[in-house]
Amino acid sequence: MSDPTVSVSKGVFVFKNGFKPGSTKSKNKNKQSSTKTYNSILENKLWYKSYSKLWNKIEKKIQDSSDSDEKINTRIKKSQCTFSLLQGWYEASYPIESPKRTKKPPKKRKILVVVIPDFESFNDKILQDFVLIISSYLNVLPFALVFGVATSTSALHKSLPHHVSSRISVKVFQSQTSVVYLNNILENIFLTADCPFHLGGRIFSLFIDQFLFYDLSVKGFIRNVKYAMLEHYSYGNAMALCTDQKHLKSLLNEFTHDDFENVRHLISFRSLVENEQPDNRIKLLTNDDFLKDVLHQEITTFLEYLRTFHLFLKCLYVLVQDLPNNPLGKQFRELYRTSVNELITSTDEFRQSFRLLGFQSKDELLIKLTWIAHLIGSEGNDSVGIKKVIKTLNAFVKQIENFNLKMEESGDEENDDVVVVTKAKSRQELKEKLLKMTHESKPLNKYEKMRKELLTFLTQTFEKYLNTPKELPFHEIFIFNDISIRQHIEGIQMASLHEALVNPQAYLQCQCCTLPNNSSILKTMPDVCILYKLHLECGKLINLYDLLQSFLVIVEPENNEDCKAIKPELQARFTQAVAELEYLGFVKSSKRKADHVTRLTWSA
């Protein structure tokens, strides 16, 4: 009886069990039915209602931010994909009307755009034929080809010969990088006061690092945020309060006793109880109506805090974004990550940034102050503190505009300096006096005094409004910082490979690979699994001949007496399994000895 599985290269297993995939229609029906079942289960949950409402709002903003036309979801069979059909559809959609017969202006005919994202990997012959066919239809179908070239324009000329490239007019342009798109989505959608759900510092760093160092995929980043949101809201109905202020009161009216108990299990609830009076402590723990009023008040305060937090974080970004060496970072997301993790005004980077601001000229400071005053004024916040900040900033702007930057020099001070130098009787005394003069503070002119007062005012303002969210009660409702989802976001590839190679029955679900214990090796296991378990018992250098003998003992123990006569089939299986181990990164060929391989992985 033959083995139901055959090992092939690159760690892929082909099953010979007559399995036939189900039809697409049945799969789609199963997916639709399962989706309806999940929705019917969750649609009555308060947390799921808040989650779906917020995510639909975010998704709509993301779609509105991309300037894409409506997609045509017309299904066409592969056999019908012909240029004659395309021409008929185009002429029906954009008919050519005679201007004499109609008074209306003719409908503007749109260009058919064909995008080939990965140009280098595209088949040259097919691409050449496609361009030649398109060129013959240009009189009836206006085409524009967009080639995604990752290297240089020379790749275009190498793939398309002269008789093909002469048919097209080439224009080179560069698209924005994915980092720019990510910054736009973060600054306009996620990192705003309109989005109550916020990522904590550790989770935000995880998502950003995965984006920058792994895939540079904006869609992947959005999927990660969506997963984090679902994980956050699934904690319970307490997270349903992560919503807009206009829906807050109606949500609290739907809360049950169990929902209020869910709120009482939050970590920040303890600090709230400890800061209350003894009578109020008992009410918070036992009276749901009293807790409802406190929740409404505290969450309203937190939402107001988020609004001012983002406002003054943008103001700080305006001040520090172009400083030398960028102590607080070049991007707004870096500023957000720092401010969510810790008190940003107490960091060394913040103090260094304000020291650099102390050297800025009048024109630079005037532009930044004007922009900050515009940001705060356009927010529409009518609180007394914000109005006072705007009034003070406008006063500083007027002072800078009317300043005369002439230094006030005093002749007496210069004479005093000369007297001090002339009184020195020795070189050592002169050195000491000059050193003392360097430590003396230089008199400031009017602009420098005003700039110092301005920076002091800005520092105090940022200290007031840029507090960390974890200092406020119920911050867990709005800030998600559970780093345990890392294993679901990144995945542990080596652990999965180890599990598959040590215990293939967990993935193959076959009875022939059932192990009595983890250390045993069966001859019915795939060859790569046998060699993997054998190589775990070896040292740094593995002798291939010894490994082959061990492999033969397991695969054909009855023919182990004649070691010199090795069947070609077994030798080929062994060679293929070693190649698979090398492809997976467990071994590599050794330069020290030709008949050895080097082991690359070690258990912790």
TrEMBL record:
GO terms for cellular component: DNA replication preinitiation complex; nuclear origin of replication recognition complex; nuclear pre-replicative complex. GO terms for biological process: DNA replication initiation. Transmembrane segments: none annotated. Residues 496-602 form the Origin recognition complex subunit 3 winged helix C-terminal domain. One of its GO terms (molecular function) is DNA replication origin binding. Residues 64-241 form the Origin recognition complex subunit 3 N-terminal domain. Component of the origin recognition complex (ORC) that binds origins of replication. DNA-binding is ATP-dependent. The specific DNA sequences that define origins of replication have not been identified yet. ORC is required to assemble the pre-replication complex necessary to initiate DNA replication. Binds histone H3 and H4 trimethylation marks H3K9me3, H3K27me3 and H4K20me3. Belongs to the ORC3 family. This is Origin recognition complex subunit 3. The lineage of its organism: Eukaryota, Metazoa, Ecdysozoa, Arthropoda, Hexapoda. The gene is LOC108736893.
